[in-house]
Amino acid sequence: MTTTNPTWEPRRLTAVAVELPEGVAPPGTRGRILHAGLKLYADLGFHGTSIRQIAAEVGINSATLYAHYPSKEHILAELVYIGHDGLFRELEQALADAGPSPAERLAALVRAQVYSHTDYPLLALVANSELHALSPESAAPALTLRERSRQLLYEVLIDGVASGAFSVADVTLAGIAIGSMGVRVASWFGPDQPYTREQVAEAFITYAHNIVGAR
Amino acid sequence: MTTTNPTWEPRRLTAVAVELPEGVAPPGTRGRILHAGLKLYADLGFHGTSIRQIAAEVGINSATLYAHYPSKEHILAELVYIGHDGLFRELEQALADAGPSPAERLAALVRAQVYSHTDYPLLALVANSELHALSPESAAPALTLRERSRQLLYEVLIDGVASGAFSVADVTLAGIAIGSMGVRVASWFGPDQPYTREQVAEAFITYAHNIVGAR
DNA sequence: GTCTATACTTTGATAGAC
DNA sequence: GTCTATCAAAGTATAGAC
Fold first, then answer.
1. How many domains are contained in chain A?
2. Residues of B whose CB is below 8 A from A118
3. CA distances in angstroms from A126 to A13, A42, A74, A133, B181, listed in the order given
4. DNA-binding residues per UniProt (chains A, B) (predicted)?
């Protein structure tokens, strides 16, 4: 193959709605740019997407983008931040609404993570898979939120072990395993498979309980 | 920010050895190109890497690359195939060496996947995270191997349920959960954390057994 | 096989009119 | 805010000498 087929473009996801959580998208053109960036970054990756593709998706000239964002990277930075911030808020709210037992609190976290990824799969994919394309300064706010989210899980696990509700040899590895189930959801959940978000969440809650030996 | 800082480059991984399994790298310059591609694709992604960077890493002129590979994509295609083929072979060998019980066979698969990712993290990362950058035709052989690897796991799970060794409501979701723990290993395992590959494997085997309710 | 030189395209971003 | 027009740089890949 010595030439590139211009009609083919790689696709990372089956077609799903390009959606952001309510209230987080800026109004007007800036918001439409953000949605277009979300769709294209999820599909082609940050480096695989050109500023002209984003503009075409919005229906504006590429130069107009720079009236709303100072660079291509700033569009990604906003998406990555929104994704991490949204997940962290969902996790915090889930804990606030959860019952007092460690098992209930762990279930609330797993459910919130699964729903976050099933409801906004493009956002989850971009936030997790394209973060590495950001400069350290642009990535820092999202990384702080990721660390805080991680802490929410570990506090629940540590409490559960301390109270005897959980029985697990290594809390860190158990947390990694539970988190791994969750972050992968956006990569396989979609309209081409038969499960509802609720079925996935309840199954993964059971697995998480099994992993930590919840009584 | 209106200009790009040419001295900064995004980094996806902490420094680890750039290694391929024995015997899979072609001899001579072609093999050195493959190693350079592995390192750079893992670090910067396929679209984030230029043909000139690969050539510079090898220490040759960029034009010389085309005496060994017909395109940038062919280098990635070979890496993605090697990664999927290597994992599949390891899984098959693990089953051949495993004891007869479903629990032993599941343990063998989990251990093989963990070792494959801890021993060749760059290869695992490129094979899984950059596959989407390939054309459908270039990706097909790897996808076939991935499906066959998936089947190995599901056969063990189905056997375990049929024999009463496992107790799990949904084999598909359990398989996804177990596979998710494994594919994430390359993203966090490295010299900056305290676990050995054996510790990770044994912990994940326990979690897998817990997920499927192994008796 | 490897090089120098270069063709040609696409890229991110800017200038300036309206 | 949006456009047309354009720049400078970087991109993949090729031609042809050695």
1. 1
2. none
3. 11, 5, 13, 10, 20
4. 50-69
